[in-house]
Design brief:
Strand content of chain A: 35-45%
Number of strands of chain B: 10
Distance between the termini of chain A: 51 Å
Shape of chain A: elongated
Largest interface: A-B, 14 and 13 residues
CATH class of the largest domain in chain B: Mainly Beta
CATH topology of the largest domain in chain B: Jelly Rolls
Order of helices and strands of chain A: EEEHEE
Structural class of chain B: alpha+beta
Radius of gyration of chain A: 15 Å
Number of domains of chain A: 1
Helix content of chain A: 10-25%
Radius of gyration of chain B: 19 Å
Oligomer: heterodimer
Order of helices and strands of chain B: HHEEEEEEEHHHEHHEEHH
Helix content of chain B: 40-55%
Shape of chain B: globular
Number of helices of chain B: 9
CATH superfamily of the largest domain in chain B: Jelly Rolls
Largest sheet of chain A: 5 strands, antiparallel
Strand order of the largest sheet of chain B: 2-6-4-5
Number of helices of chain A: 1
Strand content of chain B: 15-25%
Number of strands of chain A: 5
CATH architecture of the largest domain in chain B: Sandwich
Largest sheet of chain B: 4 strands, antiparallel
């Protein structure tokens, strides 16, 4: 177990000074994906385009992985829009 | 004699009287319930799924919680309990535990034999009604939680939990003006509102900025109560505090 820090990029960049204890890379990825998708589920519904990312760093500040998510809404009938 | 009993069970009396008024004889009978006191450390199981408890567990000091785990190992904290609560009161009539009950902080617990609880209500319809209402309010809190976890966003869920725990503690004299203990860790609060600790932390930062809440050292201070209530869409009606008293007050002022 070690503590990892999850930076959220969602419009602005939000650092993480609390972190979370993780067993392994699978758990780090799971937390990053769940965090990013649940934030997107709440914040992306009103926008045609939503981009978010979570970068996970270890205690030394070294990046371990980045998960990115882009949601794009395309209206089918552009004339009416 | 009941009069010689200490006031150890006073938190239970305060809790019951937050929903219904008892008469003097009923109060004495509640305080005279036989019990065994147990000190437990943080995160000790009190009763686990499948057990058949023979006692009701009354929280006298500290916080307890109900929880469950998914097969994948994700914990959901189902509810928090504070001084005066009897989290397993339902097992007076449902013999087998269907969830697990554990301390959250170090706790002082009083274990009251089921036999004594059953004897208490015989010939005391007021106490019977108080215990009935206590379990019904517990169910009402769960309905509100389904609403919150199913339909509100992380920010609203977090705000709602803060409003509820403040109001519940205030009702039994455990909160100051817009300030109360809130000992769960951020990871535990995240498991109660059903988001990752990272997402919870984001919601907490937003509440800090928008509603001037401060969560530090196991203590919550609320700077903007109307703002927090609005963020939570919080309506305390589901807690059913003092409804009899309000009716009495209305009659008195009519």
């Amino acid at each position: 177990m070690a503590r990892y820090f999850f930076e959220i990029e969602n419009g602005g960049l939000h650092g993480d000074d609390t972190g979370a204890e993780c067993r392994d890379l699978d758990e780090i990825r799971a937390i990053a994906v769940r965090t990013l998708t649940s934030i997107a589920a709440e914040e992306a519904v009103h926008h045609d385009r939503h981009r978010g990312a979570v970068t996970v760093r270890d205690a030394a500040g070294t990046s371990v992985l980045t998960v990115t998510l882009t949601l794009t809404t395309t209206l089918s009938n552009q004339d009416e829009a | 004699m009941a009069g010689s009993h200490s006031q150890i069970l006073t938190p239970l009396l305060r809790k019951l009287e937050s929903v219904i008024r008892l008469n003097e004889e009923e109060r004495r009978a509640v305080l005279a319930l036989p019990h065994v006191i147990r000190q437990v450390g943080p995160h000790e199981d009190v009763a686990t799924v499948g057990e058949r408890p023979a006692h009701c567990c009354l929280v006298l000091e500290g916080w307890a919680h109900r929880y469950g785990y998914t097969a994948a190992g994700d914990r959901q904290i189902l509810s928090f309990y504070i001084a005066g609560d009897i989290p397993d009161l339902q097992h007076l009539y449902l013999p087998v535990m269907d969830h697990s009950l554990a301390s959250l902080t170090a706790c002082t617990l009083a274990f009251i034999p089921h036999e004594a609880m059953r004897a208490l209500v015989v010939g005391r319809p007021g106490v019977m009604a108080a215990l009935w209402r206590d379990t019904l309010v517990d169910a009402s809190v769960y309905r509100e939680r389904i609403m919150t976890l199913g339909r509100r966003q992380s920010l609203g869920r977090t705000a709602h939990l803060f409003c509820e725990m403040y109001m519940r503690q205030r009702a039994v004299g455990l909160a100051d003006d817009l300030s109360c203990p809130l000992p769960p860790t951020q990871a535990e609060l995240a498991d109660a509102v059903g988001v990752t600790a990272v997402h919870f932390n984001r919601s907490l930062r937003a509440l800090r900025a928008e509603c001037r809440i401060v969560l530090q050292g196991g203590h919550l201070t609320i700077g903007d109560w109307p703002g927090l209530v609005a963020a939570a869409e919080f309506d305390p009606v589901y807690l059913h505090f003092n409804e009899d008293r309000h009716r009495a007050d209305e009659r008195a002022s009519a």
